[in-house]
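Standup notes
- DV: blocked on the single-chain target, sequence here:
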Amino acid sequence: MGMVDREGLTESEFLAQYRAGDYERPSVATDMVIFTVTSTEEGNYRKLPEKELRILLIRRGGHPYLGKWALPGGFVRPDENADQAAARELQEETGVSDVYLEQLHTFTDVGRDPRTWVMSCSYMALIDSSRFRLEAGDDADDAAWFKVSYRLLREQKELLEEGYVRTWTYELKLSAEGEELTAVINRTVTAKPTSRSLEYTIVENNGLAFDHGKIIACAIERLRGQTNDSDIALHLMPKLFTLTELQQVYEVILDKELLKAAFRRKVAELVAETDHYTENAGHRPSRLYRRNWGEA
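- DV (later): unblocked, structure below
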C-alpha cells in the first residue's frame, strides 16, 4: 500500500475523487512575434537596397477586437504543449517550419482578454524573408508584414530608500501599406536589495488588439539584446550573404549605424568565406559568406 495523506487516501484514491472543475482554470494561448528582414525597392541600380525589420500581424476577423491588428497565435490544444502549439501556428501562418523559435515570456495580467481568463505564452520567431508564404488564417481577414520602429522617448529614475525604480518610455510604430499602428510602452525595472523585477505597461495604444503592444516591445528588447551578445541575427539571413548585407541587418535591429571595421571584427568568427560572389549589375562583385557553424 502506498503512502496516504491526512485524509487517509492513497494517491490513486485521491486522483479518483479529484474534481478539476472545483478550481477556475485559465485558457492558454501562444502569441508569436515573427520577425523578418526585407529589402526595399531601390530605383538607383548602383545603390544597395536598404533593409527593413518587419513583424507579421493579422487583422482579426471576429470579436473581440474585430478589425484590429494582432499577433498570430492561437489556443494550446489538449494534445500539445506550448512549444508545439507555437510551431503549429507558425506553420499555418507562414508555411515554414524548422526556424528559430524562442519562448519570450508568459503574460498573465487580469483582464488581458475580455472573453475569459487567458494566459499568453509568447514566442519570438526569426525567418529568412525568402522562405515564407503569407496566408490569413481562419480567424483573420488579412495578414501583412509591418515595418517596425521602436524608439526611446524618455528615461527617468526614482531613488528608493534602498534601491531604485527606472522607467524607459518607448514609442512603437508599425507601418504597412495604408496602415499605421502606434503605441507608447513603459519598460520599468524595480531594483531592491533582495529582488529585481521588470514590467511592461501600455501607456497609449492605437490599433493593436489585446496587450500585444507589450509582447512586441518585449520581443524587440530581447532581439536587440541577443543581437549584441550572440549570433541570433544570422537566423534572419539567407544561406549566402555579403558582409554589407549582414551589417545592414544588425543596424535595422539595433536602430543605429555601426562602424564597418568594428562590425567586421565582431562577426569574424561567426561567418565563413565562400568561393561565391555577387553578380549584381552596376556593383563590383562582393564575396559571399555563410554562417560558420563550427564557431557559432
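- Follow-up: The first strand starts at residue 27 and ends at 39.
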